Amino acid sequence: MKLTPTMEKFILHWGEMGWRWGINRSVAQVHALLMLSPKPIPAEEIGDTLTLARSNVSNSLKELQGWGLVRTVHVFGDRREHFETLRDIWEMFLIIMRERKKREIDPTLAALRECAETAESGKADGEHTTQRLRELIEFMELTSSWADKAQALSPASARKLFKLGEKVFRLAG
């Protein structure tokens, strides 16, 4: 696959943003390439295009498949596995939100609850600490609840919700 300067810029940026969000840069770059590709790509071509080692491509694809963002596709007449990402950006958004909630919000909420319980049952922590933990728990529970409700939406409904949210922000501002 021949990359244009625009494609290169996007892939590099997506890799950088992935790294800032705690995702391996190569994983994010493989994802970016698959987003821009009009057809499924075999792993060898991904590696050649991004100048990544085969093992790096393989590990990146496994991680992306673990998130549910990449799937294996078979192409008629080619015995190799090809890979593609989701075409619907809103479906991708909902999957990423679900995975981030599972990996980040849920464990944080559990740790906050445990800390608050310990603070409330002992005498070592002051009222300020206990109150701040309760405020954080309330915030994280609301965040978690919104994420759960969003997961019940179809990609089309999520898009409508965000568009409606834009109108609400204009009215509130």
Give structural notes.
With 173 residues, the chain is mainly alpha-helical. The protein folds into 2 domains: 5-85, Orthogonal Bundle (Arc Repressor Mutant, subunit A), CATH 1.10.10; 89-172. It has 7 helices and 3 strands. The chain has a 3-stranded antiparallel β-sheet. Helix 3 packs across helix 4 (54-67) and helix 5 (89-121) packs across helix 7. The mean pLDDT is 93.
Which shape, going by the Cα principal axes?
elongated
- Give the total of domains: 2
Number of strands: 3
Oligomer: single chain
Largest sheet: 3 strands, antiparallel
Q: Fraction of residues in helices?
A: over 70%
N to C succession of SSEs: HHEHHEEHHH
Query: What would the average pLDDT be, to the nearest integer?
Result: 93
Distance between the termini: 46 Å
Low-confidence stretches: none
Write down the Rg. Answer: 21 Å
- Kindly estimate the percentage of residues that lie in beta strands according to DSSP: 5-15%
